[in-house]
Amino acid sequence: MKRQLILEDGTVFIGEGFGSTKEMMGEVVFNTGMTGYQEVLSDPSYCDQIVTMTYPLIGNYGINRDDFESITPAVKGFIVKETCDFPSNFRSEYSLHTFLEEKGIPGLSGIDTRKLTRKIRTVGAMKGKICGMDENPEEVAAALRGTDFATDQVSRVSTMKPYPSPGRGFKVVVVDFGMKHGILRELTERHCDVIVVPYNTTAEEILRLNPDGIMLTNGPGDPKDVPEAQEMIKGVLGKIPLFGICLGHQLFALTCGADTEKMKFGHRGANHPVQNVETKQVMITSQNHGYAVREESVENTDLEITHIALNDDSVEGLKHTKYRAFTVQFHPEASPGPEDANSLFEQFITMMEEEKKAGNLTCQNA
């Protein structure tokens, strides 16, 4: 069935529909990963976005039960050059088409994804709509230009109630802004006693749990739309060791007096080089963000830049100069992508150990 993608500037891409036949609007972005489409589709940070995969063939290894990053996908649409209808992989349980159909996510194949990606890189991320051929492009484009997306993405993808992932090590409170399961996996593999809490949990509620460390997770949208998180971070900073990833990194920066800005087209993929400012070591990282910390805004704060992106010199890591707290913009848990930065979880464990040795923690089993 022929379907179309209409962008807010009136550009039309016509292809073959697959997955759900629903009509969906979203911010059209691109991901440069060669693999990992299942993790991309289930990453809550893609809430309200239509994702374009730059790799030409998607779906060839199917969908399996083990690689999901969340239970309920939040992505609005999926665009590929070519989709594979008959996947071949020993773990495959069903096709990409079947998955999208079951989850109500429209797909579009057979379009020039290279042309679409070049357009986004030139103009920036744009609003778009996947719809049937009977829709008038001019009317849809006008409607898109007059549409403002909701600012409640974090509240929609965060857990509604606290829940534990028991372990016998350090007690870590994970503040869920749209957490990928990979973060939880890395903490539990290190025997952490994890409690996942909603995004709007207060500092007082977290401190009552008597944690040894706090993890601020990834999540969708503009960090300035989550002011309650800044109040929480302000209340725990300096009292409990803290590690933030992606949106957690941006919220930490805002709390400490720095500023964030929307990027032209963001970083999304599994091949982004990042350099450690101190050691000069370069890591290939997995990334998914449309906002970044403004470098000049870090000046005159108690923050220090620890990592930079080699492609555009944007800020990729921060640490507090007075307290045990550090954050990164990229994803050390990968999923999908390289595990070059996985040692940052060990750094978090070490930070909690140092705090315990200083006599400030109560964990007895770490």
Automatic annotation (TrEMBL):
CDD domains: GATase1_CPSase. Its EC number is 6.3.5.5. It catalyses: hydrogencarbonate + L-glutamine + 2 ATP + H2O = carbamoyl phosphate + L-glutamate + 2 ADP + phosphate + 2 H(+); L-glutamine + H2O = L-glutamate + NH4(+). InterPro entries: Anth_synth/Amidotransfase (IPR050472), CarbamoylP_synth_ssu (IPR006274), CarbamoylP_synth_ssu_N (IPR002474), CarbP_synth_ssu_N_sf (IPR036480), Class_I_gatase-like (IPR029062), CPSase_GATase1 (IPR035686), GATASE (IPR017926). It comes from Priestia filamentosa. This is Carbamoyl phosphate synthase small chain. The keyword Amino-acid biosynthesis applies. Composed of two chains; the small (or glutamine) chain promotes the hydrolysis of glutamine to ammonia, which is used by the large (or ammonia) chain to synthesize carbamoyl phosphate. Tetramer of heterodimers (alpha,beta)4. The lineage of its organism: Bacteria, Bacillati, Bacillota, Bacilli, Bacillales. One of its GO terms (biological process) is L-arginine biosynthetic process. Belongs to the CarA family. The keyword Amino-acid biosynthesis applies. Pfam families: CPSase_sm_chain, GATase. Pathway: Amino-acid biosynthesis; L-arginine biosynthesis; carbamoyl phosphate from bicarbonate: step 1/1; Pyrimidine metabolism; UMP biosynthesis via de novo pathway; (S)-dihydroorotate from bicarbonate: step 1/3. It is an enzyme of class 6 (ligase). GO terms for molecular function: ATP binding; carbamoyl-phosphate synthase (glutamine-hydrolyzing) activity. Residues 1-170 are annotated as: CPSase.
